[in-house]
Structure formats: C-alpha cells, structure tokens
Design goal:
The complex is a heterodimer. By secondary structure, chain A is α+β, with helices and mostly antiparallel strands. Chain A has 4 helices and 5 strands. Chain A has a 5-stranded antiparallel β-sheet, with helices on one face. Chain A is elongated, with a radius of gyration of 15 Å. Chain B is of the alpha+beta class. In chain B, β4 and β5 form a beta hairpin. The longest helix of chain B is centred in the middle third of the chain and has 13 residues. The N and C termini of chain B lie close together (5 Å). The chains are: A alpha+beta, B alpha+beta.
Chain lengths: 125, 147
Amino acid sequence: MNVDLKVTPDKYLPHRYAGASGDFNPIHIDVDFAKQVGLPSNILHGLYTMAQVARANVNAAGGDPRSLKRLSVQFRGMGFPEEEITVTGSVKEERDGRVIVETQAEQGGKRIIRNAEAELEQSPQ
Amino acid sequence: MAVNAEATGKTYPPVEYEVGKEKIREYAHAVGEDNRVYFDRAAALEAGFRDVVAPPMFAVIYSWGAVALPAVDPDVDLNFAMLVHGGQEFVWGEPVCSGDVISTVASVKDIHEKGGMGFYVFETVSTNQDGAEVVRGTWTNIVRGVS
C-alpha cells in the first residue's frame, strides 16, 4: 500500500472550505486580518488538511470510503494556500485484517500534520 | 491562571443534523474528492450505499454544532484568543448517506495543564436515525499561556 498524494490548494480554496464547513474564522479567509494578528498570510483550515490525509489513505486502500476506520492527527505549524501539500504514509503494522499506516502531510519541507495514524481495511464489507 | 478542570465529565444535549446530497457535493468538491459515490446516486447505489455517501471527514460538518456547545460553555471557559486545534481523531462506524439524520452528543473528556498549556479534550458520539454509531470524535484544543 502506497500513500502518496500531492495537492496545491488554490488562492480561493480557504473560501470554498469556509463555505462548505461553516468555519469563517478570518485568519483563514482575510489576508489583511491574518497579517494583523502576526501571520504571514491567511492559513489553511487544519481540518481541510486532515481531509487530504483521509483522502490519500482512502485512495491508497482502493478508494472505498468504508476502508477508513480510524484517523488520528496532530496539527503542527500552519498550511498556506498556493503551496503544494504532500501526504505520505507507510504501513506500520497489520493486525486482524486491518492495516495501520503512519502518515503525515508536509508543505515546503515543514510537517503540518504529524504523528498521524490511519487504520484501514483493504477489502471492506 | 491555572486551568479549571471542574467541567470534566459534563455532557451536552444532542444536536441533530440532516444530511443532504447537495451539502455532501459542496463539501466533497471543496476537499478535492472526485469519487462518483460522493456525487452520483446511481454510482453510490451500485457501490452498495443506501444513497450518495459522505466522505469520512464530513464528520466535521454534522458534529460541528454539538462540539460548539462545550467550546462556548462558560463552565469550560475556553480562551479563544489563545486557542489552537492541537489534534483530532475520528473512529468511523456505519457510513453516512444523504437523507440520514445524525444526532451528536458532546462531552468534556479531559481538562489538564501541561508545560504552561491547557489541554481541553472534547468527545463527540454521532449516531444515525437507526441508532447505529457513525463516528466517535476526539477533539483536542490547546490554550497557550495558562500559567
């Protein structure tokens, strides 16, 4: 199983995610506000980045959403729009027909999600 | 200012969320999903789902209203100005499909202080209209500078 996903959120992605999720915190959608509170720019929603980790792991298991049984992550650092995110992962162990994957997301060489663990079932139902 | 852990164990009333096909589409599009089971009823039925299915992380959409209750509870007293989302876990059960009515109960699982930071851990348990558990979420919020 190979977890490998690259995605570059475009400039307006945080706005679309804000609309979809209802999280309109201005640090995600207002560059001026973000700079006023000391950030270099508006930042990605952490749960958007977690969704990329979920998607990468579901895809690695064959694409069926039922294959993802558990995902735990720690948010570290900040993600930014218009920079490529890379999600990777490797199988740590297999038990009871399930695979435990150690996975992470990085952007510009910095881990923005780390110590993440996905539990996958490759042939659900 | 040390953390006040008295709210640990407090449980909040259930919050209902009715899942709609177009909301699933909007969310799936925003997070870059392209699997037809998230958009197309025929594709979802063919894959064995009851209707268009929600991506796993759609859990944040239907449990958001419930987890907001401890977050704004004066007994918990989260300092939003110093708040960061430190960690998140979901354990999935029955898939969530368009037309489902999801009921989510939030509780305060743990409040503690470590290294000058306050850790506020909330748990949500979401069940569908048939009483089947669809997801269990653990939300770890970190408040900087509590001591």
